[in-house]
Amino acid sequence: MDEYSKALSFYKKALEIRQQTLPSNHPDLATSYNNIGSVYYNMGDYSKTLSYLKRALDIWQRALPPTHPNIKTVKKNIEIVKDKL
Questions:
Q1: pLDDT at position 78
Q2: Out of 30, 51, 67, 75, which residue is the most buried by the measure of CB atoms under 10 Å away?
Q3: What CA–CA distance (Å, rounded) separates 51 from 44?
Q4: Cβ-count burial 49-64 (b if 16+ within 10 Å, e if not)
Q5: Under DSSP, is residue 45 helix (H, G, I), strand (E, B) or coil?
Q6: Would you state the CATH architecture of domain 3-84?
Q7: pLDDT values of the chain reduced to their tens digit, one per residue, 85 residues
Q8: Are residues 71 and 57 in contact, defined by beta-carbon separation less than 8 angstroms?
Q9: In the chain, what are the domain boundaries?
């Protein structure tokens, strides 16, 4: 198993734990989605990257102030991924 596959497995397990213990709009869930999206980006799977980054953005927009750096960063990353599709 390569390093990206290992990372993906660990991040998905973390997401599963967070989904079981946190409310659906908790910012930590968005962090998990963002991390998984980053791994997919590094693996070259841009459609999955986009899906996970959009989930992260949706939660962060509901849970954080609009000027929060996480929101700005993930929006920029979404645009980068869209350019690759």
A1: 99
A2: 30
A3: 13
A4: bbebbebbbebbbebe
A5: coil
A6: Alpha Horseshoe (1.25)
A7: 699 999 999 999 999 999 999 999 999 999 999 999 999 999 999 999 999 999 999 999 999 999 999 999 999 999 999 999 9
A8: yes
A9: 3-84
